[in-house]
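Progress against Task 2.4 (sequence-to-structure conversion) is shown through the following example record, which the project officer requested during the mid-term review.
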Amino acid sequence: MAIAYRKVVNTILSYDPSPNAEYQICVKHDDRDGEEETAAFIDVCLYCPEDEETYAMDLTSWVELVDAEIRNETKIKNDCMAAHILWEITFYGFTEEKVLREHEGLKKLLERIDNGEEELIPWEDIKKELDEDEAGLE
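Structure tokens generated for the chain above:
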């Protein structure tokens, strides 16, 4: 695993500088909106200062991230923060090509949903089914 991450770092370091003023990489604590039964964890996302919103970054091209400013809203050290960022950007694979393939697959799925070829399942239906399954186990 360490070799895979070393290759990712070397790939990112090989990119030409391309500052991204639109988005920052934000590293913050996430307590899942105060839910007591869920432990706090570190969240890594894109932050847009213009609209003050955060966005997922796991399907973002690494070229767009290479020189983004990093907002550290935690007390973790830089090496730990870098590990969290690497974990996030490699969620779908250890090459940018794999990440971009996943991104394209998601875009195609959204097109199929928009065209009525695919259908989303409402969370309420899934939760109801899970509750029924759990009740059946008792």
